[in-house]
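Journal club prep, notes for RB
We'll compare a predicted complex against what the paper describes. Inputs for the nicotinamide-adenine-dinucleotide case:
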Amino acid sequence: MSLSYNHNEISKIEGHLNGPLFQNALKNLEEAAALIDCDKNVLERLKKPRKCVTVSVPVRMDDYSVKVFTGYRVQYNATLGPYKGGIRYHQNVDLPEVVGLAALMTFKNSVLGLPLGGAKGGVCVDPNLLSRTEKQNLTRRYTSEIGSFIGPTKDIPAPDVGTDPQTMAWMMDTYSQEYGGFSQAGVVTGKPVEIGGSLGRNHATGLGVIFVTEKAFEHCHIPFNGARIVIQGFGNVGSFAALFAHQRGAKIIAVSDVNGGIHNGDGFNIPELLEYVKTHKTVKDFPKSQPISNEALLELDCEALLPCALEGQIDLHNAEKIKAKVIVEGANGPISNPATKVLTKRGIFIAPDVVANGGGVIVSYFEWVQDIMSFFWDESEIDNRLKTIITKAFDNVVKFKLEKNCDMRSAAMAVSVKRLEKAMLLRGLYPR
Ligand code: NAD
């Protein structure tokens, strides 16, 4: 008897493709495909993840009970090289979210010109509720469960929300013990420097954001020196972006974190603010500043707005109120697709996330290369190579935007899809 499915059954089977993040990525993909007249068979293949792995992760808790968590690894596309993408520990992680994030990694790695495919993984867990031992137990068992799918030449995880260099150290050690018993540093990136991590990884995304801001200003004829910059989010990305912009002569007039924002029209002394945050754990109540809400901060008059916190910050409800001349997306997905159209129409220049926050994966790529060679570069070499790659990606996207007269997000996606299309057509379809 042959199997046949009606449409509803297929939707049920493909429920993992129904997440909002993935559906948004598909919308961007289809728009980009139309712009480049993409081969329809390639487009068909690009709309689906190659492999989705779901695993149960039993963990011995400190009270000796066992809790079973659910983990995922989605390998989206490996046309350009081994799969690459982070591991997220968060209570909202589910398969549809991981599929969406894996698709985004595919398009990001392609537009950046890296020889890497796209993947993502995660475990549905609130890491703040785990002790250090429980987190280590969870990481080692999760690594063991996905062990046969990852590897230094196959699929290379990295940190993401809720995971850090220590998590990567445990992953690397577990994989090394299970597969040969020797050190396999290249299986993950974002490791501590002492075990094969790269110099410059910690500040890479913030520095990349500022290289892209410099290019965006150049494009819009705005001098960097004295430019007023507003930054939402003062974590890894936002705080390093603030420091590098300050060092280059910009005035950081407002910053915020989850507790609220601060404003000073004359610009903050960023090294002093960083010291303040070290002790107070927030930017709130920094001396010589006025409080400002996160909503009002986004609407300040400035040369550049750098959203470096969360997704979905600028939508149709506030797109008309934004006064920045340039927006550089440090965070993933801070501006919705419809808001992008409104802002672009209003003449606001957007540097899209896939390029603007690519510094992290670029230096992860350098870490992987250094691990394979067992030969390590100094920090200035890494920063310079990062600048070369990220500015080239930016230039490619601007060139496409000018040729097709489209918005920067569509241009970035089109450049990305075009590279994937060429490679997929060259490789062909196996068996045929
Ligand atoms: P982080 O956790 O270090 O910092 C996040 C910051 O945002 C914190 O200051 C937090 O207080 C603030 N924040 C949280 N909720 C907020 C709210 N409602 N309003 C204002 N601020 C709020 O995270 P991160 O690593 O800096 O990542 C920030 C963004 O950049 C995320 O979207 C992440 O996916 C993206 N990103 C990070 C990297 C990287 O290498 N760290 C690379 C690419 C993309």
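Talking point for the session: The chain has 15 helices and twelve strands.
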